[in-house]
Amino acid sequence: MGVMDHHTEDHDRGLAFDLATLGRRRLLTLMGGAGLAALTGCGTDHTGHNMSASTTTTAGTVAQSQGAAAASDCGTETPEETGGPYPADGTNGPNVLTESGIVRSDIRSSFGSSTTTAKGVALTVELTIVDTAQSCAAIPGAAVYLWHCDINGNYSMYGKGIENENYLRGVQESDAQGKVKFTTIFPAAYSGRWPHIHFEIYPSLSEATKAGEPLKTTQLALPKNVCTTVYGTEGYSQSVRNLAQTSLERDNVFGDGYETQLATVSGDVTAGYAATLTVRV
Length: 281
Hints:
This protein is an alpha+beta fold and 281 residues long. The protein has helices spanning 6-12, 14-20, 53-73, 205-209, 224-230, 237-244; strands at residues 122-131, 137-138, 143-147, 169-173, 179-185, 196-202, 216-221, 264-268, 272-280.
């Protein structure tokens, strides 16, 4: 099965086109917890004298400064990105999120009427979801919907001949450490895009499985050295050419900065690879 002819057309239109596919969605911003308590009124020091208003103001300024430093140490929030033309979340045609069976960790096979398994080098993806408003504390109980293309660069539920497949799509709920893990295959590189994985973060599993409002939609980038190795294996030959024709710096999603989206990947083609990323929301 070859790459769909419309891949280049759709993805080369850039963000304006892709964002239009998110029609009914509005970006929700995570709200932080309670702010620093205000320091008001006058007290007395150890000598019994009233403290001046300037002393109180200085204390408040110091506290605010310390709070800002803690937030800064947490790192940069992961940017919002397009869900692309093939999300299958109800915003652009099919909706897999409301189907029974979508909550699963192993997303290599279709569920429901088909049990077709996607071919490719094994890959596990582990995401850690943290809250930048709370000094990057883990977010338990969030839901992550993750999807990506297959070995041919096509997306289930959209690609020619795989409209009735739903492999390489799944939802997981984050644990007490804010972690989710998916078992999948290494995605191809198709024309016009750097190798990537899409995901949406929802405030809860119930919100995800009713195709509600995501807290964040973004993408994970895969490192070049690993892509080069994987694409040297059987079935990925077309990805060699596609990878050579683009770069992270020229990609229409990652070109404006990919530092917070580039996964750390370990492993090999025989045992499989593991990709990890901390996602700051």
